[in-house]
Specification:
Layout (H helix, E strand, L loop, with lengths): L4 E6 L2 H13 L3 E6 L5 H15 L4 E4 L17 H6 L2 H19 L2 E6 L17 H22 L4 E7 L10 H7 L3 H11 L8 H13 L9 E3 L35 E2 L6
Parallel strand pairs: 1-2, 1-7, 3-4, 4-5, 5-6
Helix pairs in contact: 2-4, 4-5
């Protein structure tokens, strides 16, 4: 992690402090900003804070999200409050909008948006998803958003991509882990097998590979692409990182090489 400058954002102050400490111990420069991405002013504030400290934003990872506190199966069980609570699409839009002016000036930046395989729909029990129809709608919206955003900003050297993981379990005590552990053993086994075809628990390098490749610019030609990933059991702030690498010769950019990462937006508890 040495050489990477991070801005971690979450509404959980305690979780942010722990995450910042672990990254600093690994040699990176870290700032953290407590914010609620349900509020546009909070999103704009953490973007301004990152720009003030680092002077630029080379990559943005939109990870915060969730499916609400209730397990809802049928459409006529969904209230307007349930629908409005699912933040995945709105917060992604706000964050991208907040950073795009700075990225446009740099002519070389990356955006990674977290979608889900739920965007394509699932059969069977709701499981860990909560308000599944609402969640699937938001995640499908992120795919369309990313495809169009990539076409709109390509001329400025900005490359957005989307990642579609399946099951990600956060730390003990979080809502999604409690839901998973409350399921029948057969469901847990099937869900785990689908998320991890090898049946093995992935190491840290495997877990963060998908997002780090997209965030660092190692994938020069993948723009506006949806990447289906089998991610591992744990997703912590240490596993989501990146920086802008040297542009490839085929890219029309200003030629300014980035040396640090400006903003990473993280949901430590996968609410």
């Amino acid at each position: 992690m040495a050489g990477y400058d991070l801005c971690l954002v979450d509404r959980d102050q305690e979780g942010l402090t722990k995450a910042a400490g672990s990254n600093e111990a690994a040699g990176g420069t870290v700032m953290y900003h407590a914010a609620d991405v349900l509020r546009r002013p909070d999103v704009e504030d953490f973007t301004d804070a990152a720009l003030k400290k680092y002077g630029r934003i080379d990559a943005l990872a939109n990870i915060a999200g969730g499916a609400g506190p209730k397990s809802v199966h049928q459409i006529d069980e969904i209230s307007d409050d349930d629908w409005n609570l699912v933040i995945n699409l709105r917060s992604t839009y706000w964050a991208c909008q907040a950073v795009i002016a700075a990225m446009r000036e740099q002519s070389h930046s990356r955006i990674v948006n977290m979608s889900s395989t739920s965007a394509h729909g699932r059969i069977g029990p709701v499981g860990t998803t909560g308000a599944r129809l609402v969640y699937a709608t938001a995640k499908a919206g992120i795919l369309g958003f990313t495809h169009q955003l990539a076409k709109d900003v390509a001329e400025f050297g900005i490359i957005p991509n989307a990642v579609l993981p399946r099951l990600i379990l956060s730390e003990p005590g979080s809502r999604i882990r409690a839901r998973f552990e409350a399921q029948e053993p057969a469901y847990r086994e099937d869900a785990w097998s689908l998320a991890h075809a090898s049946g093995r628990r992935g190491g840290r390098s495997r877990r963060r590979h998908g997002i780090s490749v997209l965030g660092t610019g190692q994938l020069h030609l993948g723009c506006g692409t949806a990447h289906r990933r089998r991610l591992s059991r744990w997703l912590s702030a240490r596993d989501v990182w990146g920086r802008s690498a040297t542009p490839s010769q085929g890219m029309q950019v200003a030629g300014k090489e980035a040396g640090h990462l400006g903003v990473i937006k993280q949901s430590l508890q996968c609410r």
